[in-house]
Design a protein that fits this description.
By secondary structure, the chain is an alpha+beta fold. It has helices at residues 7-13, 33-50, 55-62, 66-77, 116-123, 125-140, 150-163, 176-202, 280-290, 313-316, 339-348, 365-378, 408-424, 436-445, 455-458, 494-498, 543-556, 563-573, 578-590, 621-627, and strands at residues 207-208, 211-212, 223-230, 235-240, 246-251, 255-261, 267-273, 327-329, 352-354, 465-471, 473-475, 480-486, 489-492, 504-510, 513-520, 526-532, 630-632. The longest helix is centred in the N-terminal third of the chain and has 27 residues, at 176-202. The N and C termini lie far apart (71 Å).
Length: 645
C-alpha cells in the first residue's frame, strides 16, 4: 500500500494505540441493533490481536478467516500520512472512513455523478474560494460584509459557472437536485468552520488590569437568545365538578419559552405558554423572569431531586441576579414584534432589541440546541406525539393512547430538572470542558462588568405594567357618577368625582389583573384608584379573558346579569377537545391566585393615598363558579386481572 502507513507501522510509532479502551468513543445510540452487535464483535477481535494473540488463533476462535482479521486491522489502524487512523469508526459496518475519490473523468458519457461535487470544487477552485471568503466575512461581521444565505450563494455559483462557459449538458446542471444538496452540505461545513475560527479569535487570551484571562472566558449577558418550542406531547387533566362528577380531559400541546446566554450557553430563564400560539404576554412573562431571582420549585413526584449544584444562574450566583442583558435576540414571530415587548426591552431593561434576519434559525443555534435536548427528554415519555407525523415514537392509534398517564405538573417538574442539569452537569467542548454554570462563575470571578437592572425593572410584574390615555365621562345632570371605560367595562372611584380638571387622564395597571386601575393626570399627578363595576371584581382576570367573554355575549345577542358565569357554563358543557382542555388549564393558571387580592391603593371616600385596595365581594356567582373548579393530576388506572376472565 504505497503512500499509506500500515497498521504495524502505526503501532510502532504510537504504542498507546494497542489499548483499545483508550480510543475515542463513538455514538452507539446512532447505530442499529445489527450494527451494534457487529461493532462489539469486531472490537473483541481487534483487542485480542493487539493483546498478543496470534491472528490464526483469533480467526479460529471467532469463526472467521484470517484475511478478515487483517482487513479489520487495516481498516482501523492504517491511514495515509496526512490523515488520522479511523480507530473505532473502522469497526462500524458500512461506515465510510476514507473520502470518496472519483476514478473516471466526469463527462457527458460517464455513468453516474458520484464524486462530481468534489471534481467541481477542483475545476472551479477560484469560484469556491470566493464563496468561502464571503461566508467568512459574513460570519465575522466584517465591515461592508454582505449577509449571505445558502440559497443566495448557490444562485451566485450557478451564475459564475454560466459566465465561465459551462454548458447545460455539464454538471451541476445535469443533476440539479443532487448538486444543490452537495452544495448545502458544503455550506454548512464551511459556515461551522468559520464560526469556530471566529469564536477562537474573540475568546483568545488577553491581559488587563485583572491579569491574563482564560481563553474560554467571555463576558456574560452580552447577548441573550430567546425562542419558543412547542412540546410534542399530550397531557392529562382531571376536572372534578361540584356534583362529584369526574371528567377526564386531554390537554393539547403547550409551549416552552427559554432564554440562553450566548457566551456561557447557560439557560438564564424559562417559562411556559398555555396557548395555541405564543402571545406577547408569554414573552413578557419570560422577560420578567429574566429580571428576577430564580427560586427552585417544590418537587412532588417521588424519585425526582435536583442534582447537586444545579439551577439557574440568577439563583446561584449573586452577580447574575438582576443582570441586564445588552442584546435580546429573537426571531420575527408576530408576538415578538409587539410594541409592549419592544418597549420593555428598550426602555425598561435598557437593552438592544434584535429580531435578526428572517428564516435564519442558526443565528439562535444555542437555544435551538437546548430545545433538541428537551425533545429527547419529552420523547422518552409514553405520551409523546413525535416531531413529525412519520416519527416512530408518536402515538400509533387510539388503542395505545397514554396521554393521561402524565400530567402537566409532572412534565414541568421533569423539564425543570433537565434544564438545571443542562446548566450544571453538561461539559461543553467550546467551554474548555466546563459546564455553563462553571463558565459563568469564571467570568464573574474574572471581574467582567455586568450591568445591573434599574429599580423599575426589578419589582415583580414590571413587564406587565401598561399605561393608556382615556377620557372621563360624566353626566352630572342625570346624577350619574363619573366613569372611565377600559376593555368594554366601566371603572368608578371617588377620585373621579373630586377631579375637575381636563377629562383626558392616564391610567396605569397590571395587564394580568385589570380589575383595578391607577389614575394620573397627563402631567403625572396621582389622582387615585378606580375599580371595575359589577361581577367583574369577583376574581383576577386579564384583558384576553374579558374580551372573550364580551365577544361571546355579543354573539348571543342577549344581555346577561353575570356574563362570566354564562361563559364558564358554555366552556364546561362544550365537547371534550384538547383545545377546550387547554383553555380550562389557562383559566386555572390565571385564577390560581383568585380570592381577596391585595393591591397598592384603597378606594374610600376619605383617602387617596396608597394603602390597601378594597377586596372584591367573595359571594359573587362568578367567584363561586370558579371555586367549583378543582384540579387534580390524572392517575394511571389500576391494572386489571385478565387471568380471571
Amino acid at each position: 500500500m504505497a503512500g499509506v502507513i500500515t497498521w504495524r507501522e502505526q503501532l510502532a510509532l504510537d504504542s498507546a494505540l494497542r489499548v483499545v479502551d483508550r480510543w475515542p468513543a463513538i455514538a452507539l445510540d446512532a447505530l442499529s441493533q445489527a450494527q451494534r452487535r457487529q461493532y462489539f464483535k469486531r472490537c473483541e477481535i481487534v483487542k485480542a490481536v493487539l493483546n498478543g494473540t496470534p491472528t490464526k488463533s483469533v480467526a479460529a476462535t471467532f469463526g472467521i478467516s484470517q484475511s478478515h482479521v487483517y482487513d479489520l486491522l487495516r481498516r482501523t489502524l492504517a491511514s495515509p500520512p496526512d490523515q488520522r487512523p479511523a480507530l473505532r469508526n473502522g469497526l462500524v459496518r458500512g461506515r465510510r472512513i476514507r473520502p470518496y475519490k472519483r476514478h473516471k473523468p466526469l463527462g457527458q458519457s460517464s455513468q453516474g455523478a458520484a464524486g462530481a461535487f468534489t471534481w467541481l470544487q477542483h475545476e472551479a477552485a477560484d469560484v469556491f474560494a470566493a464563496l468561502d471568503d464571503q461566508i467568512r466575512r459574513s460570519v465575522r461581521g466584517m465591515r461592508h460584509a454582505e449577509h449571505v444565505t445558502c440559497k443566495g450563494l448557490h444562485a451566485r455559483l450557478i451564475q459564475r459557472l454560466q459566465d465561465g462557459g459551462w454548458s447545460e449538458a455539464d454538471y451541476p446542471f445535469t443533476n440539479a437536485s443532487y448538486a444543490w444538496e452537495s452544495f448545502r452540505r458544503w455550506y454548512v461545513v464551511r459556515h461551522a468552520h468559520h464560526q469556530r475560527q471566529s469564536c477562537a479569535r474573540t475568546t483568545s487570551g488577553a491581559s488587563g488590569r485583572h491579569g491574563t484571562l482564560s481563553p474560554a472566558v467571555a463576558a456574560p449577558f452580552r447577548e441573550i437568545q430567546i425562542d419558543a418550542w412547542r412540546i410534542d406531547a399530550m397531557f392529562g387533566l382531571t376536572l372534578v365538578h361540584d356534583t362529584g362528577y369526574i371528567e377526564r380531559l386531554e390537554v393539547a400541546r403547550f409551549w416552552l419559552l427559554a432564554a440562553v446566554d450566548s457566551q456561557t450557553t447557560a439557560v438564564v430563564a424559562y417559562r411556559y405558554g398555555f396557548n395555541t400560539q405564543v402571545t406577547q404576554d408569554d414573552l413578557l412573562d419570560l422577560l420578567g423572569a429574566l429580571c428576577q431571582r430564580w427560586q427552585p420549585m417544590t418537587l412532588t413526584r417521588p424519585g425526582l431531586a435536583y442534582p447537586s449544584g444545579s439551577g439557574l444562574p440568577s439563583g446561584l450566583i449573586d452577580e447574575a441576579a438582576y443582570a441586564a442583558p445588552t442584546i435580546i435576540c429573537l426571531d420575527n414571530a408576530w408576538a415578538h414584534q409587539a410594541h409592549r415587548v419592544r418597549q420593555f426591552v428598550v426602555q425598561t431593561m435598557g437593552g438592544i432589541f434584535n429580531c435578526g434576519h428572517p428564516r435564519q434559525p442558526t443565528a439562535r443555534r444555542l437555544v435551538e440546541t437546548l430545545f433538541k435536548r428537551m425533545a429527547v427528554a419529552v420523547h422518552r415519555l409514553p405520551n409523546t406525539t413525535g416531531s413529525t407525523p412519520h416519527d416512530p415514537r408518536r402515538l400509533k392509534n387510539a388503542k395505545h393512547h397514554s396521554g393521561r398517564d402524565v400530567s402537566i405538573d409532572e412534565c414541568r417538574e421533569l423539564l425543570e430538572l433537565v434544564i438545571c442539569d443542562y446548566n450544571a452537569a453538561k461539559p461543553r467542548a467550546d467551554l474548555r470542558g466546563a459546564s455553563p454554570l462553571e463558565q459563568m462563575r469564571r467570568a464573574c470571578d474574572a471581574g467582567y462588568l455586568i450591568r445591573q437592572l434599574g429599580p423599575a425593572a426589578r419589582h415583580e410584574g414590571a413587564a406587565f405594567t401598561a399605561t393608556r390615555r382615556v377620557t372621563i365621562h360624566a353626566s352630572r345632570s342625570l346624577g350619574v357618577k363619573p366613569w372611565i371605560t377600559l376593555v368594554y367595562q366601566r371603572y368608578r372611584g371617588p377620585c373621579l368625582a373630586r377631579y375637575d380638571g381636563s377629562p383626558r387622564v392616564e391610567v396605569r395597571y397590571d395587564t394580568r389583573d385589570i380589575r383595578f386601575l391607577e389614575v394620573y393626570t397627563l402631567a403625572g399627578t396621582y389622582l387615585g384608584p378606580v375599580e371595575v363595576q359589577g361581577t367583574w371584581r369577583a376574581f383576577k382576570h386579564d384583558a384576553r379573558f374579558r374580551a372573550q367573554v364580551c365577544r361571546e355575549a355579543a354573539q348571543s345577542k342577549r344581555r346577561a346579569g353575570d356574563p362570566m358565569n354564562r361563559y364558564l357554563n358554555q366552556l364546561l358543557e362544550a365537547p371534550a377537545t384538547p383545545a377546550r382542555a387547554l383553555e380550562l388549564h389557562r383559566l386555572r393558571e390565571l385564577v390560581s391566585t383568585s380570592g381577596p387580592q391585595p393591591s397598592k391603593h384603597t378606594i374610600d371616600s376619605n383617602a387617596a393615598a396608597p394603602g390597601t385596595m378594597a377586596k372584591p365581594d367573595p359571594g359573587t356567582p362568578a367567584r363561586h363558579k370558579l371555586q367549583r373548579l378543582r384540579w387534580r393530576p390524572l392517575e394511571r388506572p389500576p391494572p386489571t386481572d385478565r387471568s380471571a376472565s
